[in-house]
Specification:
The protein is α/β, with parallel strands linked by helices. It is built from 10 helices and 12 strands. Bound molecules: adenosine-5'-triphosphate. The site of adenosine-5'-triphosphate has 11 residues, from helix 2.
């Protein structure tokens, strides 16, 4: 089902509320009802997580421990090849990896027992380092399908084409994207920066209790980085959380992480706050991890 969306670049967009952090009130209300977790329960609790590559049997994660509470922004940094993306992919259930030990509890439920799709419907969102193309599926079809699936999971009625249109327009404005992108196939022919922006559009449309952004800042020009950071800041609320993987301070200054972690050899080697990034930049990972 393709929505007939305008292809001109300057449509009359629905103005966003002035609030710096608009949310999805109806979804949020329902989230409180269906969410197993309480304010005292961590949103995500990772204990001694170990995982290997299925094909080669090589263990990459050697006992990751991490707790994310509602409203927190966590940054994971670390040397190339230290296991950051693997950790993120294991959390969303990527089939290349097999969990060999430890536990992951998300909103009070065993995440490792859920299929990848169930994890997504439960409110876990991941933006991959290299977002993939989906040939033959238009962006609007994909977004509407995914959003309605999430609404169904939450016990909400599916949105009809007109409601979807207004909703998507609002989210497009949030990420400062032209409506033309809705009519194009998902990521097909998109530039690197456009793909990253499109990932944030997906996050804005779907909403998430925990958004994992893997190097969302790589390949973005300064304006795109600011747009993406502004959009993420407006999506964040005291109820949801962000786990971002990055190599750069620029995005950290814009998103103000509450926690900064350094991953080393498949483990979280050190945890601190934003001030640790200065030490990393001055002394490198070896010293900081040690
Ligand atoms: N599917 C796979 N097949 C083979 N090797 C893999 C696979 N996934 C991860 N690895 C290896 O595991 C190690 C960790 O990779 P990972 O992508 O998690 O690192 P990273 O910390 O995200 O690195 P970067 O900062 O460069 O993105 C690397 O040595 C990588 O080559």
């Amino acid at each position: 089902m393709a929505l007939s969306l305008p292809t001109h670049s300057s449509p009359t967009l629905i103005p966003l509320p002035r609030s710096p952090k608009p949310t999805f009130p109806t979804l949020r209300r329902l989230n409180y009802r269906v969410c197993v977790a309480t304010a005292a329960t961590p949103l995500l609790q990772v204990n001694d997580l170990r995982a290997k590559i299925v094909e080669s049997n090589v263990e990459i994660l050697h006992g990751v421990n991490l707790t994310v509470n509602q409203g927190e922004v966590h940054a994971v940094m670390g040397k190339n090849g230290s296991g950051k993306s693997t950790f993120a992919k294991v959390l969303v259930g990527h089939p290349d990896y097999e969990v060999t030990g430890g536990s992951v509890v998300f909103k009070g439920e065993n995440l490792l027992e859920m299929e990848p799709e169930e994890r997504s419907l439960a409110g876990l969102f991941m933006s991959f380092q290299s977002p993939v193309e989906i040939p033959g599926v238009s962006n609007d079809e994909f977004l509407v399908m995914a959003y309605n699936a999430r609404r169904k999971k939450l016990g909400l009625p599916e949105l009809g084409p007109l409601e979807c249109f207004s909703y998507l327009m609002e989210k497009l404005q949030l990420v400062n994207m032209k409506p033309d992108f809705l009519n194009r196939n998902v990521n097909e022919g998109f530039s690197g920066g456009e793909r990253k922006r499109n990932e944030i559009l997906q996050l804005a449309v779907l909403g998430a209790d925990l958004a994992i952004l893997d190097e969302i800042d790589s390949g973005l020009d300064v304006d795109a980085l600011r747009d993406v950071a502004n959009a993420v800041n407006r999506i964040l609320t005291p109820q949801n959380s962000l786990l971002m993987i990055t190599h750069y301070r620029r995005i950290l200054d814009l998103l103000n992480p509450t926690h900064v972690h350094v991953m080393d050899k498949g483990k979280i080697a050190r945890t601190g706050d934003i001030s640790m990034v200065e030490a990393i930049e001055a002394e490198g990972y070896e010293t900081v991890s040690a």
